[in-house]
Amino acid sequence: MPIYNTQKRLTMIIHILILFNVSLFLGLAFIHFYWASGGQWAIEGAVPDIYMDSYLDEKKKIGTTIATIIVALGLIKFSIITASHYYIDLNDWIDQKWLNMATIILGSIFVLRAIGDFKLFGIFKKKSKSKFAINDSRYYIPLCLYLGFSSILIVMLT
Question: What CA–CA distance (Å, rounded) separates 95 from 103?
C-alpha cells in the first residue's frame, strides 16, 4: 500500500510540474505575441537598455517584430514538448528518448539563460542598475532557473 501511495504522489507531482510549465510557456508566448502586435506594457523592463532604442525604432520594427514572433513560437513549441510527456501523444512521430533529449535541451537553454552572457543579463551580468537588470535579477533569472531545472526534473521523474 505505501508503494502505491508514493507512486500516486509522484504522478501527481509530475502532472503539476507539466501543467505549470506549459502554463508558463503559453503565458510567455502570449506576452511576446502582444509585444509583436505593438503592445507596450512591460516592454521597457524586458529589453536591455542598449537595445531599447533599436527595438522601438520604426525602421527596424519589422525585424524586431519577426524576432519577437520567433521567440513566441519557440515558447509554444516548448509547451508542446513539455505537454508531450503526459498530455499529447507524439509516440507516432517521436521516440520517447528523443522527447526526453528535447526536454533536457529545453531545460539547459533556460539554465544557460539564467547564467547569462556575463555582460547584460544573467547571474553574472555587469550592469545591475538599469530597469532591465533589476527585472532580470528579480524575475527572469529565477523564472529561467525554475523552468530549466523543472524541465530536467520532468525527464528524471517520467
Answer: 13
Give the span between the Cα atoms of 140 and 95, in whole angstroms: 32
Phi-psi region of 32 (alpha: psi -120 to 50; beta: other; left: phi over 0): alpha
SS3 91: coil
Q: What is the DSSP letter of 86?
A: T
35, 68 contact by CB (below 8 A): yes
Q: Is 42 left (phi over 0), alpha (psi -120 to 50) or beta?
A: left
Set of cell numbers at residue 108: 539547459
Produce one character per residue of 108-122: b if its CB has 16 or more CB atoms within 10 Å, e if not: ebbeebbbbeeebbb
> pTM score, two decimals?
0.85
At 114-125, the pLDDT tens digits run 998 878 888 988
Q: What nine digits make up the cell of 38?
A: 505593438
Tally DSSP H helices, then E strands, for the chain: 6, 0
Task: Name the CA radius of gyration of the chain, rounded.
Answer: 18
